[in-house]
Input
Amino acid sequence: MTNLKILFTVVATLAVFTFVANVIPQVQSAVPREIVLSADMPPEELAAIGEEIYAGAGGCTACHGLGTRAPDLLGVVGGVCATRVPGQSCKDYLWESLVNPTAYIVEGFDPIMIDQSIVSSQAELWTLVAFLQSQGGEITVNADDFAAALAADAAAASAPPPPVVTDPNQVDAVALITAQGCLACHALGGEGGMVAPPFEELRGQDPAFVREGIVDPMATINEEYSTFAGTMPTIFGDLMSPVELDVLVDFFVGGSGAGAEGGEAPGDAAEVPPDSAGGSR
Output
């Protein structure tokens, strides 16, 4: 009799769990669809792909749409882009705003955006332009624009990669900081942005902490700059060779900076905040 009770209990328990498992909505993992770009795509399809990039891989919504970090674009930018710079068309203005974002700064906002050609192909950038034009305006991105972008992307993909830097003495830390666009947000020697910690604050910090702030800028957030948390891309660990990264970290914490020709090392280690690394750390 006891065995029957145990069996009944087990069967009843399994039945309950099976019922619950079937009534709870199941979540299926969404596999990102592969985006295939071609010059003969209609404007509406280009804009749809641009919208995917805008809301996803492009990371645009980390700043745009919040109303505090960058201007709201949705529903309006396509109607005003042609009026921003006299003599410049809407699509040319939008393109330049993507690849040279400090050229035009909307009043009331800081220059925190990096050159988007660092993270996106030219063809992807044109889909972004098409999407932004669709927000209150007419899409004028055409097949010629797209064909030229695809050709440029193909040429870039087939070009031999630059040689990997293995000699620290070949690395100029200050030139590297400038090339990577770091001064759009950070300051060095009084020059640069003010929306992220000045590099002088990294003097004397733990090199491992500073390295983490470069490759994973959201690992620790500096509360003083928390308004701009998430704006620093996570690509810099891939854009630099290990040797370049080592030289940069050494320069920041107060070492020689290897080949930092004439570059001034950050200031004294005194009064260094304990959480000053990274884009908004």
About this structure: The radius of gyration is 25 Å. The first strand starts at residue 187 and ends at 188. The domain at 43-158 is CATH 1.10.760.10 (Cytochrome Bc1 Complex; Chain D, domain 2).
